[in-house]
């Protein structure tokens, strides 16, 4: 099975930023233009780019759509989300050139609607994002940029989307996101057993080549890399080579 490396660009106010554990008050900004960074990733050999509209994720609008459209016009295939709530949002991103639309909050709150999108657009055009926070033995699924609690759980929804024909599942361990503390291998091992038919993208905490190898061995089909690339802990060339 092919394993995909997805360098990430998180956007807030048109700038490249990273949050710690999804906390908007704990932001690190990077002094590089998003389009310049995307070109660097393409030159290093990436084929995909993962883009998050953090303004949209929290407020429910496609605040950075114009910039996302410019990124989608680069040499990379773009997977983008944040603020996708309606049928029109999906259409606008696809029309902007995005190859795959990431749906998170709406996938937690209204699975029936998202299953209709899967049927309408096809499973290759959507990535279901079930970002999760562990509470005891339960993997909870907060929404709205991880700021609002929801009743659904990862074990409820991942099998539902697998049964509906989804192919791509992005799963971030929120506690690890932006922390450079290593990925949660137990989480991806659990998903490989729970929904073996899905191509799971691991996200959160990846520091280096060893972590990439570990999530791949756990059954993930890809990995999203953010802070480790931005801060030089890992080079994209090394990530792609492994």
TrEMBL record:
Entry's EC annotation: 5.3.1.16
Highest rank taxon of the organism: Bacteria
Class of this enzyme: isomerase
Record bears the keyword Cell membrane: no
Gene expressing this chain: hisA
Catalytic activity: 1-(5-phospho-beta-D-ribosyl)-5-[(5-phospho-beta-D-ribosylamino)methylideneamino]imidazole-4-carboxamide = 5-[(5-phospho-1-deoxy-D-ribulos-1-ylimino)methylamino]-1-(5-phospho-beta-D-ribosyl)imidazole-4-carboxamide
One GO MF term attached to the UniProt entry: isomerase activity
Family matches, as InterPro entries: Aldolase_TIM, His_biosynth, HisA/PriA, Isoase_HisA-like, RibuloseP-bd_barrel
Catalytic-site annotation from UniProt: 10 (proton acceptor), 131 (proton donor)
Pathway(s) annotated for this protein in UniProt: Amino-acid biosynthesis; L-histidine biosynthesis; L-histidine from 5-phospho-alpha-D-ribose 1-diphosphate: step 4/9
Subcellular locations according to the entry: Cytoplasm
Family to which the UniProt record says this protein belongs: Belongs to the HisA/HisF family.
CDD domains listed in its UniProt record: HisA
Name of the protein described by the UniProt record: 1-(5-phosphoribosyl)-5-[(5-phosphoribosylamino)methylideneamino] imidazole-4-carboxamide isomerase
Keywords: Amino-acid biosynthesis, Cytoplasm, Histidine biosynthesis, Isomerase
